[in-house]
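Reminder: ligand-aware prediction takes two inputs, not one.
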Amino acid sequence: MKSKSNQDYDGLVTLAWQDNSVIMIDQTRLPNKLVYRKLRNYTEVADAIKKLRIRGAPAIGVAGAMGLALACIKSSSANKNELIVDLQHAYDILLSTRPTAVNLFWALERIMKVARKGKRVKEIQDTVVREVNKMAEEDIWINRKMGKIGSGLFKNGETVMTHCNAGSLATVGFGTALGVIRAVRESGKSINVIATETRPVLQGSRLTAFELQHDGIDVTLVPDTGVGVLMAKGIIKRIIVGADRILRTGHVFNKVGTYQIATLARVHKIPFYVAAPLSTFDLKSRAEDVVIEERDSKEVTTMVGRRIAPKGIRIFNPAFDVTPPHLISTIVTEKGLLKQPLSESIRNIFKLPMIS
Ligand code: MRU
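Here is what comes back for the chain with MRU:
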């Protein structure tokens, strides 16, 4: 599948709006099969987000927006008020799919705002469809911009570590953290990537290893438990990950395991970078108010359909963790690099008033 407007981008495109439906890669089938699914209504999109057929903060944001666009064009409402009621219903269902990545909320809000501005049903349907196409185009463009900005942080020939999947598959295309890695290579520098397996859902081995191999980028897969030894040996020169939500204090919510990698990186004096678009920032919430999704215990107790833990065992399976700002060297955004102190850089980039 090719990007509609980013014709120079020939990498994986994770989702697109096509003929009044949503086409997306079914990520649960990777790495064994690259299968595209066609989704025709918003409940199918909600289900795909819930079941991780599509995942990664920016990707679920655009997918959610496209789900809302499906609800909009399929609505049989006779006037604007009825249409907004239908959209609000779809909004609630789409938003309830996954609680942690703020991009979903951001994207759904953006569509509701566009819809509320219109006057007639047909006009609203047309503008909403235009908006989701714009969001998909912007996503790739923003990732490329972040890549260019972030690539300057890397030297030729370095080995870098990433966690989970913050690549093309977590976005519409190109990726955030993996976008920076792609841009390093595009700038003529060589780069070797260490991808963590990312238990229990294995986004690292199923998705990051797949997409880097797909693009011919040197990648080595390690179990999550191999992170410390690689750092201690001095092999890892830098670390770069994505984010699901960044607060105005600089706290970064990302895939569970990020916090322990950042902590180890500090011990070994390895720069720890986060790459995320401005749509990943939540300037209102406090860290204690953010809901960290807890997922089905079966993700931990079973593997390829086989039980790997005793029956009745108690399970804690959080999907995300929080990395405090002092462990983060730099945040790469499409508007530039955010340096320490992060709260001050975030305040400046968003032109926020001082908190009293
Ligand atoms: O549970 P997932 O696979 O949706 O989690 C994804 C991550 O944690 C990514 O690192 C994050 O969304 C950044 S993606 C650009």
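The mean pLDDT is 96. The radius of gyration is 20 Å. We will return to this case in the review session.
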